[in-house]
Amino acid sequence: MASSMSEDQFLCSICLGVFTNPATIPCGHTFCKPCLEAYWNTRGDPAICALCKTSFTPTPNIQVNIVLRGLVESFKGASGGDEAVDQPTVAPGEVSCDVCIGDRMPKAVKTCLVCLSSYCLEHARVHNARFSRHQLVRPLANLEERMCPTHNRLLELYCRTDKTMLCVACDAHQAPAHQVVSMQVEFLAQKAQLAKDQTVVKEKLKATRNEAEKLNSSVLLCENKAARQIEFVNEFRLALVSKVGLIYDRYNTEASRRVDELVRTASHWNRALEEDITALMSRVFALERVIGSSDSFELLNNLPSLPPAPLDGIRGQCSVNIPTDLLGNLVEHFMQNIAKLPKMGYLTTNGNAGSEIALVKEFTVEVTPDPSTAHPSLLFRRGSHGCEIRVDRSKMARKFPLSAQRFTQVPCVLATQGFSSHRAYWEVEVEDWVGNGSDVWFIGVATESSMTSRGVSLTPEKGFWVLVHREGRLWPTPATNPTAIVTQMRKAHVGVYFDGRKRLVSFYDIHLGHHLYTYNHVPTNERLFPVFSPDFFCSAFKPANHAMIVRTHTATNHQRGR
C-alpha cells in the first residue's frame, strides 16, 4: 500500500517535509503539529490556516491524527526516511526560514508573496516543486506590514488618486475614476521621478555652494577694501600731519625771525630813550636850581647855560606784538590746501594719486560698446582684456539703418551701460601705431541726447565731458580749458571715474599713477554713457585701416550702482 502512495500526499505545507505528528484543523488542512504550533505562536491571534488563511477564534485545540500518523510512518518505513541537508544559519539582520524549527534557524533565500512565508534553500526547492506559479522574491521581513488590514490580503496595487496601496479586494470597491496601477508600475514611475528630483537637488546644491563661495568672496573683498581704505585714511592722516608740521616749522621760523628783529629794534630805541631820559633829568635839575634863586641877576645870567629844551613828542615810539597775521595767513593757506585735496588728487604723502586710483577701482564696471550707436567705420572684437574698437575707413560706405541712436558724422560709439546716481570706473588703453601723435581721439562720458547726425561738439553744453588727444597731448574740452594737461603722449592708459552723487568725472593716468583732470558740477538729470572715438577726424581720404586700438578693460569682481 505504501508503495502506491506518493510523497506529495504526506508533505506539510508549512515545513514542506513529510508529516511529523500530523494534525488536522477545522478547515480540513493538515500540518505537522509542531509546525502549526510554531506558526501560530509566531503569528499571534487570531490563529489562521497557513494554506487557506481561514481564521479561527478561539484558537482550536489541535490533536494528532492517529490514522494519518500510521500511514506516514508506514510511508517513511517504505521510503527509507528523510535525508538531512546542511544549510547556512541565519545571521543578525537577516530573514530566517518560517518553516524550520529548532535552535539553529537556517537563513531564508526566498519569500513567497502568495504564501506570505520565507523559505530556506531546502524548503524553497520543495515549494517550487508544488507551487511553481507562486511569486518568489528576495527575503523580506515584516510581511504583516504588506498585508491589507481590512481584507488580510497582499498589498499589490497602488491608487494614484488617493496615493494609497491596495489589495485586489480593495480595488473591487474603488471608484471607476480612480487611477489604480500595480505597485511595480508605480515603483518604476516613482523611482524615475525621484531620480529627476535628485538631479534637481544636486543642481540646487551646486548653485547654493556657488552662492556660498560668492558670499565668502564678497566678504573677502569687503575685508580687503576696508583694509585699503584704512591704509588710505592713514596716508591721508600722515599727509595732514606732515602739512601741520610744515605750518609749525614755517610759523616757528618766521615768528622767531620777526621777534628777533623786534627785539633788536626795541634795544636800539631803548638806548635812545635812555639818552633822552638823562638829558631831561639834567634840564629838570638845572631848572629847579634857577627857579629856586631869589636874585634876578643870577637867574637871568644863568639862562644861557641851561640844557636845551627837548624836541616835541617822544622819540622811538614802537610796539612789540606776536605776529598773529602770519598765523592767520598760514592757517588760511592750510585750509585752502585741505579743500583742494579731493579734487586735485593730493591723497598721499608724496603728492601722487595712487591711493585715490586704488579707491575708485573698487567701482570697476564692465563696459561694452553698443554697436547700435556706432559709426559705420568702427569694427569691434571681443578679446581677453575687453573689447577692441578699430577704425576701418574702407567700411565708411557701409549702409546701416538710420536711427536717432547712431553717430553718422563722427566715428563715435556709446557703451551699453548708462549711469546717473551711481559710481562707476573703467579703463581705456589707446595705442597710436602710426607713432607721430597727430591723430585726434577722445574718451569720456556723454549724454544719450548728444548723438546727432549733424556732427559732434565736444563741450559740456552739448553733453560731452571728455579728454581729447591731439598734437600728441591730452586736453580737456577746448571750450572749457585751453591748457594741455599731458604733453607728448603717444600711448595712453587712462582710467575714467564717474560719481553721480558728487556729480564729477575724473581722469587718471594709470601708467604714472597721476590724476589728470576732473569735471565738476556734471548734471545727472539724464543718464551718462561712456563714449569712445578712436579717430575724431576719420576721412575716406586717409589711409585705410587706421592702426589705432581702444581696449576697454573689465574687472572680474566689479561692483555696480554704489
What is the residue-averaged pLDDT?
Answer: 77
Q: Kindly, what is the distance between the CA atoms of the first and last residues, rounded to a whole number of angstroms? A: 106 Å
Q: Unreliable segments (pLDDT under 50, ≥5 consecutive)? A: 342-352, 543-548, 554-562
Share of residues in strands: 15-25%
Total strands: 22
Helix content: 25-40%
Number of domains: 3
Domain B30.2/SPRY: 347-550
GO molecular function, one term: zinc ion binding
Organism: Salvelinus namaycush (Lake trout)
Domain RING-type: 12-53
If you had to describe this structure to a student in words, what would you say it looks like?
- Residues 347-550 form the B30.2/SPRY domain.
- Keywords: Immunity, Innate immunity, Metal-binding, Zinc, Zinc-finger.
- The protein is of the alpha+beta class and 562 residues long.
- The chain has three domains: 2-83, Zinc/RING finger domain, C3HC4 (zinc finger) (Herpes Virus-1), CATH 3.30.40.10; 200-351; 358-553, SPRY domain (Jelly Rolls, Sandwich).
- The protein has eight helices and 22 strands.
- It has helices at residues 33-43, 66-79, 121-130, 168-172, 183-291, 296-302, 324-344, 354-360; strands spanning 22-24, 30-32, 47-48, 55-56, 110-112, 117-119, 136-137, 157-159, 164-166, 180-182, 378-383, 386-391, 413-414, 423-432, 441-447, 464-470, 473-476, 491-499, 504-509, 514-519, 528-533, 548-553.
- The chain has a seven-stranded antiparallel β-sheet with strand order 11-12-22-14-18-19-20, with helices on one face. A five-stranded antiparallel β-sheet has the order 13-21-15-16-17, with no helix packed on it.
- Helix 5 runs antiparallel to helix 7 and helix 5 (183-291) packs antiparallel against helix 8.
- The longest helix has 109 residues, at 183-291.
- It is elongated and about 195 Å long.
